[in-house]
Every structure is written in C-alpha cells, then in structure tokens.
Amino acid sequence: MEKTINVIKITGVPIISSRDVVLLIKEELKKVDKEIKKVFIDFNNIEFISRSAAAALINFKESANKDIIYTGLEEDLAILLRLVAANKIYQIKKQNRPNLKKVKLAELLH
Q1: Domains of the chain from N-terminus onward
Q2: Could you read off the pLDDT of 63-75 as tens digits, one per residue?
Q3: CA–CA gap between residue 96 and residue 102 (Å, rounded)
C-alpha cells in the first residue's frame, strides 16, 4: 500500500524556505495509516528549497519509519538535495579523521 503527500497542498506556496515545512510534512505523515509502508512526497510545482530545508528533508527521510520517496522534483532541486546529502556524508567522514599534529621536518630529524 502506498500514499502520496502533496507538498504544495500542505504549504500553499511554491517555496520551502525553512525547516518548518518539514514539520508540516511530518504531521501529515503521522496521519498515514500504519499499514502503509511507502509514502511518496510530491514536490510538483515547488520552485525553491532553502539549504536548511533541504538538510531537514534529508534528515527526515533518513529517520522516517516508512519508505519515503521524493517525487516531482525539478532537476535543480534534486541536485540540491543530492549535494546536501553528499556534504553530510563528507562531514561525517571528515569528523572520523585522526587528530594529526603539524610538525617541522627538522623536528623529526633530531
């Protein structure tokens, strides 16, 4: 069983400029029957997503207890979501790097 949540119907505007919109999507998701495991989030007619909202959408998708599929994204918005997701992965890898200390070559030779 599947369900579609239309973002423009929730927001009434073609712009997702804050994380608050993600909270609205979460509220809609709570209304979905527990037996439904796949939910499509439809971004048709959405023209802009802020970087912070994109990050919240990525986190939302990762933490949802259902299979969330984003549909109807304009190409540039899909690219934005991919970049934000890639940056998140990069930040995690960057944090796992060992704490290296800079030393001068002369210090190593003595």
Answers
A1: 2-109 (3.30.750)
A2: 888 899 999 999 9
A3: 18
Helix locations, 1-110, DSSP H: 7-11, 20-30, 51-63, 75-95, 105-109
- Find how far residue 93's CA is from the centre of its chain: 18
What single-letter DSSP state applies at residue 38? E
Q: Mean of the pLDDT values across residues 59-87?
A: 90
What is the CB neighbour count within 10 angstroms for residue 16? 27
Q: Which residue has the tokens 């029957």?
A: 33
Q: CA–CA separation, 48 vs 16, rounded Å?
A: 6
